[in-house]
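Lab meeting, item 3. Inverse folding demo.
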């Protein structure tokens, strides 16, 4: 594969090339990882899209909201990319990937690009290579990248490490004020949108919005938030009410963060975070080698029959792995440029 040509086609905004690039970064093959790195390195560095992470419990209306919100942005002249992460089966490993069927209007827009991806059982609500897919969309010239997470609850915070804005979608009557002040996902949210604020659910949405607005006032103030943020507002993906207000608040928040220097600092911290995550993943992958599996199988049997303590077995396994770094072949301090 000519990675330079693929990068040039992605930079030119060719949708087929972008889809191929995302398939490449999602692949687990060693040769594909090398090619994906080359493509990412060849993309323009001067393009920045607004990255918005969207989380919420299943059934809150994330896909419906994204379609309505995305259509509004497209009609405003913006190019929108949607990266939707679907849960993978722990038993079969399969994933439905049906998000595009629920965004039929947005999927037909030339200025929009929708890519569903399997989570592959990766924790945190996003796929392991979603960050690289975001970088590809940014290099392709999209103005806004929406990252829809699986929807796994309060532990779903990894998306905040790849987004400029983290938006939490909630349903009416989704919990009182005490529920709202739980740590974890609430602390990471920049905005809370109470969806389905229409029809018979509007009174319940009003009460829920007031509960969460009060809960947000009890949380410790973050340095990256101006006065009034994080905030809770009501929206309706069905009628479109509140979508323009939410977009205006997002733009205001990002303008303030850029002027205050938090935008660049956050992206720098995120880059460092993912560098460390890639190192951890590479180290864990060493457990998948044939030699490591043989050692673990032998020590695991000793643990199972009671002849070896689990802690001692784990220590012996780590020593066997560390031996691979002590043979003189790998010296990061010496070999780094």
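The presenter then showed the designed sequence:
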């Amino acid at each position: 594969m000519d990675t330079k040509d693929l990068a040039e086609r992605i930079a030119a905004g060719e949708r087929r090339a972008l889809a191929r690039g995302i398939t490449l970064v999602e692949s687990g093959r060693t040769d594909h990882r090398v090619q994906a790195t080359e493509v990412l390195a060849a993309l323009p560095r001067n393009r920045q899209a607004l990255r918005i992470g969207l989380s919420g419990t299943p059934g809150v209306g994330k896909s419906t909201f994204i379609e309505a919100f995305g259509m509004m942005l497209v009609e405003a002249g913006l190019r929108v990319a949607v990266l939707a992460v679907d849960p993978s089966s722990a038993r079969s490993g399969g994933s439905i990937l049906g998000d595009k069927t629920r965004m039929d209007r947005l999927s037909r827009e030339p200025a929009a690009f929708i890519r569903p991806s399997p989570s592959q059982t990766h924790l945190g609500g996003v796929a392991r290579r979603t960050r690289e897919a975001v970088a590809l969309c940014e290099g392709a010239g999209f103005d806004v990248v929406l990252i829809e997470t699986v929807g796994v609850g309060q532990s779903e915070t990894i998306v905040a490490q790849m987004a400029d804005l983290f938006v939490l979608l909630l349903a009416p009557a989704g919990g009182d004020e005490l529920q709202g002040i739980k740590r974890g996902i609430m602390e990471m949210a920049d905005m809370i949108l109470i969806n389905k604020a229409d029809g018979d659910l509007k009174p319940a949405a009003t009460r829920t919005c007031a509960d969460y607005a009060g809960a947000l006032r009890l949380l410790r103030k973050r340095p990256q938030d101006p006065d009034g943020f994080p905030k809770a507002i009501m929206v309706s993906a069905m009628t479109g009410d509140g979508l323009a207000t939410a977009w205006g608040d997002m733009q205001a928040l990002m303008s303030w963060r850029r002027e205050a220097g938090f935008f660049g600092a956050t992206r720098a911290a995120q880059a460092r975070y993912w560098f460390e995550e890639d190192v951890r993943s590479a180290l864990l992958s060493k457990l998948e080698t044939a030699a490591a599996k043989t050692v673990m199988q032998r020590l695991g049997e000793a643990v199972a029959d009671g002849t070896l303590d689990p802690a001692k077995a784990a220590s012996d396994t780590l020593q066997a792995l560390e031996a691979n770094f002590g043979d003189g072949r790998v010296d990061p301090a010496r070999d780094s440029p």
